[in-house]
Amino acid sequence: MKPERSFSRRSFLALTAAAPVLSAAGKNIPVGLEMYSVRDELKKDLMGTVRAVAKMGYQDMEFFAPYYDWTDEQAKDVRKLMDDLGVTCRSTHNGPKSFEDAGIQRAIDLNQIIGSKYIVLASAGHVNGLDGWKEVAERLNKASEKLQPHGMRTGYHNHQAEFKPVNGQRPIEVLAANTNKDVMLQLDVGTCVEVGSDPVAWIDKNPGRIRSIHCKEWSPEAGVGYKALFGEGVAPWKKIFEAAESTGGVEFYLIEQEGSRYPALETAEKCLASFKKTHG
After folding, report:
1. How far apart are alpha carbons 118 and 11 in whole angstroms?
2. Is residue 20 one of the residues assigned to a domain?
3. pLDDT at 9
4. DSSP state of 206
5. Sheet strands (E) in the chain
6. Which stretches in the chain have pLDDT values below 70?
7. Structural domain total, the chain
């Protein structure tokens, strides 16, 4: 930050008026990359991609389903590389296997090796009615009980379906009401916005539970949708950041990109630059 020189009374009043947003944006919340954003590169060269993402300035990486097939040695190698690069993995995205009785211990072991605190259910798949969503909530509660002794937590990542009413109630509300407070509600902003829901209102409604946010953009422009780079769509990012940091209890942000007009690594770099400019 450049040293202050002098500023007018008008500048002071403008700064004061903007204080709530600036105080939220000024918090040192780590920003990471959901590695699905660079999935093809990751498949070709795991370690090289981790290096490239860290070099861009990302502080955290969220690995997704394929990590579950790593050997212990692979996981240890990834952890050593992340330590050497000064980056972390705070959470992983997981399929149903990581939440089954026969599979959860493997998820715990791998996440402990790489230093992850959250084992997140990436998708519930096909769910039948509100009772089906209550079953998903129960699955998350059971996982939470198994993770707590290890100092770990579970979480749930929404898509569009969770914000679309079923018999007059949104499934995301069923999940929030029927899971214990330790279950993180990882907010995917893009899918929330696409179906017309207000991400800021959702954050404010669930204080302390929005501990990570997928900063995925969405644009209503024909042919663009999720291919919009961060900041090119309609998500109200400044308001989201303020709510997340004053109410939501956010611990880390994750940029996610499903594809754009640029190569994946270039896309990730451009999104990070835009994030930093917007967030501060």
Report:
1. 43
2. no
3. 33
4. S
5. 31-34, 60-62, 91-94, 118-121, 153-157, 184-188, 212-215, 252-255
6. 1-26
7. 1
CATH number for the domain harbouring residue 195:
3.20.20.150
Pairing mode of beta strands 252-255, 212-215? parallel
Query: What percent of the chain clears pLDDT 90, i.e. is strictly above it?
Result: 90
The pTM of this model reads 0.90
- Residue 71's pLDDT is what? 98
Look up residue 204 and give its amino acid.
Answer: D
The predicted pLDDT at position 24 comes to 36
Exposed, middle or buried by CB within 10 Å (0-12, 13-18, 19+), for 93?
A: buried
> Quick one: tokens of 88?
């972390």
Q: What is the pLDDT of residue 27?
A: 72
By DSSP bridging, strand 118-121 and strand 153-157 are parallel
Does residue 149 contact residue 107 with C-beta atoms inside 8 Å?
no
Task: Yes or no: say if 228 and 194 are a contact pair by the CB < 8 Å rule.
Answer: no
Q: Which residues contact 38 (CB under 8 A, 6 or more apart)?
A: 49, 52, 53, 264, 265, 268
9 belongs to a structural domain: no
